[in-house]
Design a protein that fits this description.
This protein is an all-alpha fold. It is built from two helices and no strands. It is elongated, with a radius of gyration of 14 Å.
């Protein structure tokens, strides 16, 4: 099976967008768990994107 660059673009783009959202979203004035939840959501979303990609390949 040949894996082309186009095949990697969608899950890679989804991962980059999710991690950019998690890391570049400004934190609120008081410390809370929102950044941790955003990072956890980005990790889960990235894993789901790669899982869907692997299942569809």
């Amino acid at each position: 099976m040949t894996v082309t660059l186009a095949a990697w673009c969608l899950p890679l783009a989804a991962s980059l967008i999710l991690f950019a959202w998690a890391l570049l979203t400004p934190a609120s004035g008081t410390w809370d768990f929102a950044p941790v939840f955003r990072l956890a959501g980005a990790v889960v979303g990235s894993l789901v994107a790669w899982l869907v990609w692997a299942l569809l390949r």
